[in-house]
Amino acid sequence: MTQQQTQPGGRDERVGVVIPAFREAAVIGPVVRAVGRVYPFVIVVDDASPDATGDVALEAGAVVLRHLINRGQGAALRTGIEYALRAGATALVTFDADGQHRVEDIAPLLQALREGNDVALGSRFLEHAAAVPLGRRLVLRLAVVFTRLASGITVSDTHNGLRAFTAGAARVISIRQDRMAHASEILDEIARHRLRYREVPCRVEYTEYSRAKGQRSSAALRIALDFLLGKWER
Amino acid sequence: MHPIQFVLVLFSLFATSRVIPRIRSRSIRPVEGLVWIGVWASVAAVAVVPAAAQWVANLAGVGRGADFVVYVTLAVLVYAAFRVRITIRGLERQITELVRALALERARHPHR
User: Fold this and answer.
1) Is A139 helix (H, G, I), strand (E, B) or coil?
2) Using CB atoms within 10 A as the burial measure, which of A5, A28, A168, B85 is most buried?
3) Is A123 an 8 Å CB contact of chain B?
């Protein structure tokens, strides 16, 4: 393939949007349809949901991969990324299934890739910090310090599921953490492979549904320990 | 002989009898089997001759034979727990790889 064909923005740019999902039958349909209107290649990874998440996503127009046993968001992301790469995606976007992310925030990420970055990371704190609940914001600030110490990379938002990678970056980033520590691991991989990255502002829309489903701030310590143990095992 | 000595010797013989068939059937490697037989032989030896533990404890600078046995057992158990954790993590990774392979093979495509 020519340089133009393998880089986003080329004639043959093919954007794959990977959405890991667990028990999201209530909202996955509208999310997939909204994304699919702009980026038709949507891949939903159903992480052994006990509800109809996979069927609803399929009906809405996504390619659906199903984990027979629940393995975690990190594992689901990696499954979706592998599928997208095999299918010839030139750029990959990771997007949350719970409706917190906005489709219009994807375009600036892809633009950052076209400008020569390997990775574009969505950040809630570049422009819209006020929208984040205070308790969550404090934990995320601590996570920023932790990431700087553990991985040597400085970002303003360490746990945002909205990201974009070139196919090349997606191939070298190795996600071994099955559960929530994958977010820290991705940042660590960016630093380890010296990938060019840029943070791009995004807005996260917290609803009653997404807050009820979201990670508790108390899980932060467990995530940090999982990440450190995984880093040591490398 | 005190009852506890008798019980410990009997249990060591029983445990050793469980190890030997596993060496024969190759469920465990011969070296590993010999290590386990050595462990149970040591348990029986200390049970029959408690002074042996005291002698080793003195060598190691520990006051009482029983304390020495406890320290060594604790260290071994902590290491064993660590090894079990590593094994479990390896198994988790294998399960994920298997689940992923099946998911990729059985991808469902939307009707358009």
Assistant:
1) helix
2) A28
3) no
Task: Classify residue A145 by burial, with Cβ atoms within 10 Å: 0-12, 13-18, 19+.
Answer: exposed
User: Could you say which DSSP state residue B109 is in?
Assistant: -
Cα→Cα distances A98→A20, A127, A220, A227, B31, Å: 10, 22, 20, 24, 53
CB contact under 8 A, A65 and B96: no
The per-residue pLDDT for range A148-167, each reduced to its tens digit, is 787 788 888 888 999 999 99
> What is the distance of C-alpha B108 from the center of its chain?
45
Measured between alpha carbons, how far is A143 from A184 in angstroms, rounded to an integer? 9
Residues 41-80 of A with CB under 8 A from B: 45, 54, 58-69, 71, 75, 78-79
d(Cα A34, Cα B63) in Å, to the nearest integer?
73
